[in-house]
Each structure stands twice: as structure tokens, then as C-alpha cells.
Specification:
Elements: H1 3-19, E1 29-33, E2 39-41, E3 57-59, E4 65-67, H2 76-85, E5 91-95, H3 98-106, H4 116-121, E6 127-128, H5 136-140, E7 151-154, E8 158-163, H6 166-189, E9 192-194, H7 197-209, E10 253-255, H8 263-291
Parallel strand pairs: 6-7
Antiparallel strand pairs: 1-2, 1-5, 2-3, 3-4, 5-8, 7-8, 9-10
Amino acid sequence: MNEFKIKEQICEIGRRLYAKGFAAANDGNITVRLNDKEILCTPTMVSKGFMKPEDICKVDYQGNQLAGTRKRSSEVLLHLTAYKLNPEINAVVHCHPPHATAFAVAHEPIPKCILPEVEVFLGEVPIAKYETPGNQDFANTIAPYVKDCNTVLLANHGTVTFGPTLENAYFNTEIIDAYCRILILSRLLGRVNYFSEQKTRELLALKKRLGYDDVRFRDAANPVCGLSSFDERYSDFVPEAFAFQAECAPAVGPCSRYSEPSSNGQAESDLDELVRLVTDRVMEALTGAGAA
């Protein structure tokens, strides 16, 4: 594919991001690796839904702009970190898909062993710690993960997805947001069913036959279900599950009751006491009115 065709493809992916509500206003950025010296990059302060090929910039691996009439994205350093650390990555998409970003804001780990397609096409999804966007510290937050996954949640920010092609990187964004939406809806219904570790191993075997990688292939100690493989070995930021308790995952069947923080019991007791006091006051008032 020649350079102009790649620019057209970037514009098409930008339109998809905007149409799906993954990149509001001027949010989001897209890059494609051209070669070992140049990267195509979306411009800053331009809606991803209305870009034209001539808007696309070209940068080097230090983030210096080489070509383009518009200024390159301020978050290109995030993309460059992925390219420098993983030579198999040829495209990066960063945006704010609402359901996945909700998990990032809540610091809720993405649970495993629930949806077959996610096990095969995404695998485990870490959450990178929060840093102010646009600088190298922010870019460094994904460094521990880019060799071992294709999707990262950015705490309190959004998602970044990688792939060997731009369409593949974009599809990872679609998959993670669809999955997070399903998780939220099933949680609202009150019950989430996990499949067993054995069934997950069958999916991982399929994944290996298809040529996809997975962090669980790296080390037999990495948990197939339950807790994330992206633990203290990767970062000192290891979010704990709240809405989707990890201890439910190895079980076959539903996990309909979630262990809530101990403060909930106290809150329920306080609410009961408040209801009793209000009822007593109402009855007193009615009694007084009747006596009058």
C-alpha cells in the first residue's frame, strides 16, 4: 500500500472512531509505521471524523515532525513507545470508547473467562497507571505491557490498541468496548457466568493454532482465569477488582453474589435506622394531630 492509500485508510478509521462515539470532538489519535525512520500521524485539534489525507503528518521516532501542513498529535510519544518496544506493532489507535473508559476510570480490571472471542482475539488487558497526557512520563506508562498484549486501558483516560495492521488495531478497540458494554449490562442483570479453566485452555489452544500470542503462553504460573497476569512484576499499579470479583472466575456457572466492601453492611444498618426514626416521627405527628 502506498503512502497516500495509508493516509486514506487513517482517515477511514478516524471516521469509524468518530461515528461510534469513541473519539468526541478532537479526541483520539492514530499512527501507522511506514518504515524504520518514519511514522504517519494524525494532526492535533482536528476531529477524527473529518480528516482528509492532506491533514496527515509524518514524524520520526523522536516525535519530530517531518512533513504535514498541520501540527502532529501531542500524544504521539505514546505511540512511539509502542513502536520502539515491539517491532511487530505497525499501527496504534488511541481513543476514549465510553464503556472501556468507564472501566479505566473505575480502575476495574477486565475479567477473564467470560467471552470466547475476547479470550482469542484480545487476551488479557492491563490497566496502565495515570499520568498527565502528552509527555514522556505518560508514554512510559504502557512500556511494561506492549510486548505482552494488544490492548491497554489508560487509567482515567481511555484505551490504546496495537496491531500488525491499522484495521487490526482498530478492531481491538471495537472488541474491548463491546466486551465492556456486555460486562456492564450483564452485571446490571445481576449475574455473570464464567466458564471453567479447562474451557479457557481449549480457547487458548485454538488461539495458538491461529497464530495469536497471549501473556499466558509466557509463564505457566500466569493464572488462566481469576487474577490478572499483569501483576507486581509489571508495575506497582495493580488495580483490585470491585464489580467483577476475581475469586468467582474459576467456578463453573454463575457468580450472582459479589462480595461487597464491609462498609456496605454498616450502610444498610444505618439506612434501616434512618427509616425507623422517620417512621417514628411520622407516627408521632399523626398521633398528635389526632389528639388535637
